[in-house]
Specification:
4 copies of one chain form a homotetramer. Chain A is 25% helix and 22% strand. Chain A has a 5-stranded antiparallel sheet, with helices on one face. Chain A has a 5-stranded antiparallel sheet with strand order 9-8-10-16-11. Chain A has a two-stranded antiparallel sheet with strand order 5-6. In chain A, helix 1 crosses helix 3 (131-146), helix 1 crosses helix 7 (331-353) and helix 5 packs antiparallel against helix 7 (331-353). Chain A is an alpha+beta fold and 358 residues long. Chains A and B meet through strand 1, helix 2, helix 5, strand 11 and helix 6 of A and strand 1, helix 2, helix 5, strand 11 and helix 6 of B. Strand 11 (242-247) of chain A pairs antiparallel with strand 11 of chain B, so a sheet runs across the interface.
Chain lengths: 358, 358, 358, 358
């Protein structure tokens, strides 16, 4: 059973390779009656687009999304929404010498072994180009959530050694974002220096994205296996280059006492709230009405310019130096992807929640 | 759509509450022809059993698993395998005063809000008693994996401040485990002291479990959404009290350069291997034949004896002191649960992989 | 991927063999807050029970259903509802000589070939005993539908040559049913004679069940693949011995002109209705508010007392005469099974429908 | 949960409306390594194409299928296969006066009621144009089956009163088909006359398609709910205008005795076969190696030229005469659709069967 679908009720199935005709997907299960703002969808794609700044890959894709179905007079009909983003600037030739050599920490070797027959051009389906479809579908999910006053925001909270020291809740996330998508200007500048330095060295950098969902009602999440944070975790870990996921206190919780970690309940304006939020907005796998907070760790991009030892398709040792147009650090471009995945999970669970009571 | 099933081909559906008739489940999709070792299954349940040592809750459950179907003459038939573990030592009375008060960082408030009607006795379905069913099903999965020479091992690598400093691969995991399930004797003793201290203070401790899968073939995992580590992450995050998940280098990857993080390929005994294993055995969401390594962070148990501020079902502020029989630290008992979830994921993906090529 | 689950939101997973510990299942996705009438559930099981009349198999099973979870103080909690019906009167010895011989038109040969390892006692999981679990789950679905004023009724409309000539809508289905579950007394008597004759001859009879769903709202059914009648068809065809399914006009439609077959719309008491109901209450795969009508064809039971030619497990020709306790005609006992499957489909689609509009 | 996906492992998700940009779909789960014959795929689409003969609608669609992903150098890669068939000859204006009036026995009323917001042009998603996607995906499934020497054939066995009297097995189905897709020339001529007559009268005709699957191995089908004929039944009943489904003896079984109906086993060329085939190639829901035979009943198309009483969107009585380009009888064009759905089910179950034994 292949794995190209995500979600149960609000369900996305994607397709497409880096250097084929294009990428796209089908959203099945979007309720009828949602008026779509197509410019807002395109804006999300633009936030992920390569070539948007000096810090990203120069691959030039306009990434215009075309909707093929499921929308009539600008409003969803309840029928499947298919969309297509054509590939434009693919220089397949760049990849000819990668055909028979496995790039270290890339998906070449495992895809070749699993499927036998592989589209090696630009990594084929293993390329992060696949995530365009997530952003397009996530933009629809975001608009569904907007009707419920739920919003999703992500920021770059660290790049290599440069980290924001204050919590995400200290920022006004409605403000325009900068190129780094880091709302703390000094840290953003540090990040920029580190990225430029890495690029000049033919190296790459990892980092952390922090994501917050505001306005989610109490009750989202389906115990015991489809706990809300388990589904968010899967969503994030399915993004290329992600190596870790935390909800609320995360790994820090491992070093804490229960007496410190517990979030005491209180009443505020007639609503039950918690005074602290180590739970990250989720208790027992179900949202509790507080901000849902998570952190996602990205490894450095594996495509580096320096020479590496590796093995070729015949099992012989060789070396490789990867040319081509790669990001020295994907974090800023990954922000809309993280938001999209969060929006898909929340929209799906909002619909799932509709059937929990008589 | 409720969330009590896990897996796609090897698929577990569980049921049961802490203080009802019992807990159990159905495994659908276990291939026919697997000879079961029932004592080995029971041993796994015994590893998770309450009351097994002075460090755990004194609740006394024999946790004998009874198989109801799907097995004939000791061998699986391909039909669904149902099993039941009766509840014995439930003192429902202990919970009467918790009926209308929400315990901080517990699932009381969210379950009550989501479903309206709730079995409050011993947390009902939100209780970690639910995980017995995972262990029983996971034990079957382990035996399936055994026929493929795949093994799953987990250890307690930290409890509060006590942490093993060496990698999990430095231990001989075939040796008998101690009470702490920590293979490093000095650290184990530290953990014991910390747990005894916490118990005497009516407090609780968090910690980290490290899990390793050995012998997995190249090719498991279904891009793009059902990447192997994404499914492992969901599996682990669905366990009570888990707040974080890492694969391979995990959060440490965020601070690394690509030139350091990349796992160079090499040939060893005719097999393609990687010299380092920052990938944690998974590249592009597909197993690469190396050890699959992950770390799972547990928060401290929320049931503490000291008084806490909270809110009752009518929305009024009140305080609560939780009596009853709770673990000061669940890490040792969580080891077989982590192993079970890993085994379920790997078994499922082994079967899914059977259809990837013509 | 095994096939022991049915439904998407209101989802039943069953287990159990004819001569094992028992049969049962888990209903996941039943909304919280449904007050259950346990006697009504048992009454449904009694309608299916063997030994209930002189016309059925004398196998004596009390078929008492025991609920294990998901219910608190008589009301569903939203957690999975597990139930168990123990097997009592199984004379496994009766089946010893069937171990190695394939009964004609039975599932012996195909199960043996598919799984290799088979519980042959009383057909194991291929036995119609499995349908008890459907009736138990269907009884819960019926009670969910009752809260919506939807009811499901089935009758035996033909046994061999004995057929009711008038439509099902001519009967008052709220009246108590007779032993034959045929509301037309003269036809019922004919059926009784035919069944008694068949039994005395060691033979068996087929027949047709007609089922009607009253009160279903407009809008149930999910085009394009999960059309309401497609799901009803699958539900019915999954019952042992079913060979055909019709909705509305069914096979008769094949001989009709559009001008005769079309159901003209009209307004009645402010509601849009159709003047005729060739559509059987479903148009374009979605319920239109009229009665949902279907017919289900059952073959004669394959277990007959007379000698038949067959083949044994080694591939050698042999003969067989089947002893044991079998129904000469399953139609009357199949009525509650048909109703159960219809109720499961309608309940599931009622819940699915909750997410079709914003 | 919407219903635009079909199959579990070999899984098709479709999209598209009659008068939108186009129709298409994604096949996920097709194994890697299948060499595709694109001309053969196009030939299947041509068999379904409107305007192919004087007997069909004159709507002119070239129905060229474009593949967007999942194929590299003509061979499947294991990644999702997306395809698109553009809409060309849609005269949306034709439908303007149908915007607010419900056509009798059409899906207008139910779709409007279910979703609130509806693309009324050419029935939108309720149009049989949707079935192009099934034929395209089914053509891939057919090629997968071909590698296993399994073939699928369907014929028109009746149109209104014109019926073939001999069994489908009497024909050599490898011969080229005629315009009627009825291999019995005299009956085909009768059908032609009836269709021409109906057209001249502005009326439409129903009929029956018989489908046979040859070469299926023993063991396909997943008891208890996903029995092979239950899944075939759902597949066929999901096609527009289908009202009934029979496997093997079908409704005739209802009138038979077990002693006549049972298929005795015999050995032929070392293989276990049955002497008769009332079972239609399936016993206990699992294929037994004989021909799989089924019959599918189609109602007459609901779009007729004569005036009919109906109701408009405001609930007022009115009349309607449907203009536009409609088939007087869809049976010949439905043959490739029936074959496609059968191929999808068999391909899916062939893959599902790969996991039934250790």
């Amino acid at each position: 059973m292949a794995g190209n679908s995500f979600g149960t009720i609000f369900r996305l199935t994607t397709f497409g390779e880096s250097h084929g005709a294009g990428v796209g997907g089908i959203v099945d299960g979007c309720p009828a009656g949602l008026k779509l703002d197509f410019e807002a969808i395109q804006r999300e794609l633009d936030r992920r687009r390569p070539g948007q700044s000096a810090l990203t890959t120069p691959r030039d894709e306009s990434d215009r999304v075309e909707f093929l179905s499921g929308i009539f007079e600008g409003v969803t009909t309840g029928s499947p929404i298919a969309f297509l983003i054509a590939n434009k600037d693919h220089r397949s030739k760049d990849y000819d010498d990668l055909k028979n050599v496995f790039r270290p920490s890339h998906a070449d070797f495992t895809w070749q072994s699993k499927y036998g027959h592989r589209d090696h051009r630009g990594s084929g389906r293993a390329s992060a180009r696949e995530t365009v479809s997530r952003v397009a579908a996530g933009a629809i999910a975001k608009q569904l959530l907007q009707t419920l006053a739920i919003s999703v925001h992500a920021i770059v909270s660290s790049v290599a050694e440069a980290s924001i020291a204050v919590p995400i809740t200290s920022f006004d996330l409605s403000q325009p974002e900068n190129e780094l998508r880091c709302p703390h200007p000094e840290t953003a500048e540090q990040m920029r220096s580190l990225i430029e330095e890495a690029r000049s060295q033919g190296d790459t950098l990892g980092g952390i994205i922090t994501c917050i969902v505001k306005g989610a009602p109490v009750g989202l999440g389906e115990p015991v296996f489809d706990k809300l944070h388990a589904e968010l975790g899967k969503a994030m870990l399915s993004i290329n280059a992600v190596k870790g996921f935390e909800i609320g206190s995360g790994f820090a919780a491992a070093g804490m006492r229960g007496s410190k970690h517990n979030d005491e309940f209180a009443v505020s304006e007639g609503k039950t709230i918690t005074k602290t939020n180590h739970s990250g907005g989720i208790q027992g796998g179900i949202s509790n009405g507080m901000d849902i907070e998570m952190r996602i760790a990205f490894k450095p991009v594996s495509s580096i310019a320096t020479a590496q030892n590796t093995v070729d398709i015949s099992g012989d040792a060789t070396t490789i130096s990867i040319q081509g147009r790669h990001d020295p650090c994907v974090l800023p471009r990954a922000v809309p992807i993280v938001e999209a995945m969060a929006a898909l999970v929340i929209a799906d669970h909002y619909l799932r929640q509709r059937t929990s009571e008589l």
